[in-house]
Structures are given as C-alpha cells and as structure tokens.
C-alpha cells in the first residue's frame, strides 16, 4: 500500500465513532457532510452521509435552520449557512497567520505564476486556509478547508518535521499500525522529515503528481510550527531554486509574525 493510502487508512482508523454520540458531535457530523463535491444536500442525503437516523437529522436540521447554521437554496436543498462562514473568519489559528502570510504569498505568486498554499496544523492533520492559483490551471487541489494527514502534503511534512520528537514518534507509530506495510511507510516519512530539517523545505508529489509540492514551515520563536507555505511546481522543474524561494517566503512570514507578536 502507498504512503498516501496509508495516510487515509491512518486517518480513517482514528475517525471511527465510539459509543453514543453527543449532541455536539451529531451537529459536527451533519456539518461535516458538506464538502466541495456536496455543497447542497437533500434531507435524506444528509442523513445518509452523516450516518444519523432520518428522524434525528430532520429534528436537528430544523434547529440549525432556525439558528442560521444551515440554509435552503432555491431548489429547497440544504446548504451551509452564512453564520458558519462568519464563525470561521474568527478562527485565530487560521486568520492570524493567513493575514500575515497573504502579502508574501501574493508576491511569490506574482513572481512565479505557480499555485501557492498556506496550511495550519490541526492535531495529526493539516488544514489549508489560503490558496492562490491560476484560473483553469488544472491545480484544483488542495481546496480551502481541505484536511489531510500531515505526511501526505508538503505543507504537512514541513510542519511535522518541526514538531516535538514525542509527537513525531507517536505519529509515525500510528502510521505503522495503520497498514500492513506501515514500517516501510514510516521509514520513508522519517527520511523525508530528516531531509526537510536539513534543507529547510519539504518535497513531495503525493497529492500533486506529476507536479511537485515544495513546502517550508513558519515557526514561532521557540521553533514550533505556526503553519507552512508551499508552492506547486511542474514536473521536471529544478527543485533548489523553488526550494529557496518558498523558504524565503516562509521566513518573511515568520519574521512579520514575530514583529506582530503572533509568536
């Protein structure tokens, strides 16, 4: 099994529900049923995708509609409400680093014309919170809000490489347990982490093949990752110049974050 597939299995194994679900967990499952491929759902589709009984879904949807967390479109389908979007804008982890990083990302994008991304850590995953890319350039992933296991994207590898030793070992041990060839996957990721610390940037094509993703961390003053930025370069591009560019961009974001008291 590939490292990418291992990542999905690793993530899935940790996402299985246990026991009776709380009301908050049920709300989370309902809202998590929406994604870029499913922005509008019927009540029955929402019940199926969330794994909740239709009666429970109907009752909770009524409450979420009244609270503005869900809305109905012109075809009477359910979709995410504006209030959820407003809550998302207040997320300090995403908004603070996004605000600082965006001007530098725009400079890099203007210089290269290549897709540039920003991600932040959420436990053992990375969430993409900003993205600049050419229209119609064929680079539709990652999308804003997309979440991946840390080891399957350049942004995530850059973050993982600068996590604590204990966190890295726990993550790699979990990866080893996830699939039969987990030790091989773990060994490969371990080499990538060492290389990332040595060069200052991560390199992977797991989510972008045949293009290559190059990512560099944004660290606080104690060396802990605030997030990471990445650039997607075409197949066959010289790695080193882009590696230096993304590393310089990350350091500019980092320096500004320090100056503004974020780190």
Secondary-structure map:
Layout: H1 3-15, H2 23-32, H3 43-50, H4 54-67, E1 70-72, E2 78-80, H5 82-89, H6 92-112, E3 116-122, E4 125-132, E5 147-149, H7 154-160, H8 165-178, H9 182-199, E6 202-204, E7 212-219, E8 225-233, H10 239-259
Antiparallel strand pairs: 1-2, 3-4, 3-8, 4-5, 6-7, 7-8
Describe this structure in words.
The protein is α+β, with helices and mostly antiparallel strands and 263 residues long. It has two domains: 86 residues, Arc Repressor Mutant, subunit A, CATH 1.10.10.10; 169 residues, GAF domain (Beta-Lactamase, 2-Layer Sandwich), CATH 3.30.450.40. Helices cover 51% and strands 17% of the residues. The strands form two sheets. It has a six-stranded antiparallel β-sheet, with helices on both faces. A two-stranded antiparallel ribbon has the order 1-2.
In a few lines, what is going on in this structure?
The protein has 263 residues and is an alpha+beta fold. It folds into two domains: 3-88, Winged helix-like DNA-binding domain superfamily/Winged helix DNA-binding domain (Arc Repressor Mutant, subunit A, Orthogonal Bundle); 91-259, GAF domain (Beta-Lactamase, 2-Layer Sandwich), CATH 3.30.450.40.
- The CATH architecture of the largest domain would be 2-Layer Sandwich
CATH domain class of the largest domain: Alpha Beta
Number of strands: 8
Number of domains: 2
For the CA atoms, what is the radius of gyration? 20 Å
Strand content is 15-25%
Shape: globular
Parts with pLDDT < 50 across at least 5 consecutive residues: 11-19
| CATH topology term of the largest domain | Beta-Lactamase
Alpha-beta content class: alpha+beta
Organism: Georgenia alba
Keywords: DNA-binding, Transcription, Transcription regulation
Protein name: IclR family transcriptional regulator
């Amino acid at each position: 099994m590939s490292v990418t597939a291992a990542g999905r299995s690793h993530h899935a194994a940790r996402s299985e529900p246990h026991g009776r679900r709380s009301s908050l967990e049920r709300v989370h499952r309902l809202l998590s049923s929406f994604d870029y491929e499913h922005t509008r759902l019927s009540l029955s589709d929402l019940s199926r995708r969330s794994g909740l009984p239709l009666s429970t879904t109907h009752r909770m949807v009524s409450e979420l509609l009244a609270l503005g967390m869900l809305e109905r479109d012109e075809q009477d389908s359910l979709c995410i409400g504006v209030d959820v979007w407003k809550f998302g804008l207040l997320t300090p982890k995403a908004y603070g680093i996004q605000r600082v990083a965006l001007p530098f990302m725009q400079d890099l994008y203007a210089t290269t014309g290549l897709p540039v991304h920003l991600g932040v850590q959420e436990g053992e995953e990375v969430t993409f919170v900003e993205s600049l890319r050419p229209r119609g350039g064929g680079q539709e992933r990652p999308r804003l809000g997309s979440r991946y296991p840390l080891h399957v994207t350049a942004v995530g590898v850059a973050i993982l490489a600068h996590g604590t030793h204990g966190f890295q070992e726990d993550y790699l041990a979990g990866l080893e347990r996830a699939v039969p060839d987990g030790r091989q996957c773990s060994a490969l990721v371990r080499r990538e982490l060492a290389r990332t610390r040595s060069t200052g940037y991560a390199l992977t094509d797991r989510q972008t093949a045949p293009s290559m993703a190059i990512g560099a961390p944004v660290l606080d003053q104690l060396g802990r990752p605030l997030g990471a930025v990445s650039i997607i370069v075409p197949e066959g591009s010289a790695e080193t110049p882009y590696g230096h560019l993304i590393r310089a961009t990350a350091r500019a974001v980092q320096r500004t974050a320090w100056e503004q008291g974020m780190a």
